[in-house]
Amino acid sequence: MIVELWFVRAGQLVPTRRARPATVATSRLALTELAAGPTPAEAATGLTTLVPAGVEVTRITDGVATLRLPSADDPAQRRLREAQVVWTLTQFPTVRQVRVDDAAPVDRTDYADLLPPIVVTGPIPGDRVSTPLIVTGTATVFEATVSVRVLDAAGREVATGFGTASCGSGCRGGYRVVVGWRVAREQRGTVEVYEVSARDGSRINAVAVPVILAPGG
User: What is the pTM of this model?
Assistant: First the structure.
């Protein structure tokens, strides 16, 4: 099964994925993976976790998962920790909301402000990718236009593309951009997803995902 995990970078939520053996204890698996933290490739991009080991769902009733989280001195850190748990657990069809420490149930909308303008759900750091590559995620960007470029090991641009998110400026929508490239050998590379500034045409809100580029052409 594929488990989506939400980590933290620069005070914002960032997703990644894990392939794990199928289990009925999906919530336990997800919280264990959150506590374990990012892989070395993910950590190299600045991802971290605020969720400690030992956090468990005590019950799921009528779509509400109940659990307790250790206290945090910093309210912002506490909220990010809660957001990690809520966004991760609500990927499962049995969980629509999460109740933390007997507070009112919350869902993803309560933490939507913690998302960066551009979220990349695929590829993830460290992936070996082949051409054509489908780049996916969500974004709230000018005129809903999401741009993608692929850089080779030397930092040269080997592919570009763009697509339109399903919702325009001022709202978040999903996007899907297909790009292809030509490289003669397998090598490290970067998939960069960004917005083109309406003011000066520069690349803004960029998200760089380190990958391994398979030969293609």
Answer: 0.93
